UniProtKB/TrEMBL annotation:
Pfam families registered for this protein in UniProt: EMP24_GP25L
Superkingdom of source: Eukaryota
Transmembrane intervals: 124-146
Protein's membrane topology: Single-pass type I membrane protein
Highest classification ranks of the organism: Eukaryota, Metazoa, Chordata, Craniata, Vertebrata
Organism whose genome encodes this protein: Chloroceryle aenea
Localization in the cell: Endoplasmic reticulum membrane; Endoplasmic reticulum-Golgi intermediate compartment membrane; Golgi apparatus, cis-Golgi network membrane; Membrane
Name listed for the protein in its UniProt record: TMED7 protein
Domain GOLD per the UniProt entry, residue ranges: 1-66
The gene coding this protein: Tmed7_1
Swiss-Prot/TrEMBL keywords: Endoplasmic reticulum, Membrane, Signal, Transmembrane, Transmembrane helix
PANTHER family for this protein: TRANSMEMBRANE EMP24 DOMAIN-CONTAINING PROTEIN
GO cellular component, one term: endoplasmic reticulum-Golgi intermediate compartment membrane
Family under the similarity heading: Belongs to the EMP24/GP25L family.
Keyword RNA-binding annotated: no
């Protein structure tokens, strides 16, 4: 699993077997990998928790790989060795699986970067709007202040007649 967006990019993770026995438990992890062989059939439960960060929503990517890959050549349990073409196919197949893992990793990093860029863009937009409002208020205040310097203040005098 890997946390894509939200907070400090960490979650709690727990994996339980069908009997409720905890197989894996980690607290405040950004990413991790866990491999195990199931000891019995049944429903295994996993849970990602965000209890410690109640105000921040998080996006978590997780991937399951269940079972072994089917053999590239169905008659792999044969006694004869692989031909040069077959062994080249096997090595290319393994290299392509690692390329898929790298692509997934880079897609996740791109999603994190996009999320950060969008958050930064939102903050810059709000800051710019705030600065524009402050600039407008200050300029209006200056206009009224300068106007008061140049306005005539008429004083009214009353004559008391005799």
């Amino acid at each position: 699993f890997e946390v894509i967006t939200g907070g400090h990019y960490d979650v709690d993770c727990r994996l339980e077997d069908p009997d409720g026995i905890v197989l894996y438990k980690e607290m405040k992890k950004q990413y991790d990998s866990f491999t195990f062989t199931a000891s019995r059939n049944g429903t295994y439960k996993f849970c990602f928790s965000n209890e410690f960060s109640t105000f921040t929503h998080k996006t978590v990517y997780f991937d399951f790989q269940v079972g072994e890959d089917p053999p590239l050549f169905p008659s792999e349990n044969r006694v004869t060795a692989l031909t040069q073409m077959e062994s080249a196919c096997v090595s290319i197949h393994e290299a392509l699986k690692s390329v898929i893992d790298y692509q997934t990793h880079f897609r996740l990093r791109e999603a994190q970067g996009r999320s950060r860029a969008e958050d930064l863009n939102t903050r810059v937009a709000y800051w710019s709007i705030g600065e524009a409002i402050i600039l407008l208020v200050v300029s209006i205040g200056q206009v009224f202040l300068l106007k008061s310097f140049f306005s005539d203040k008429r004083t009214t005098t009353t004559r008391v007649g005799s």
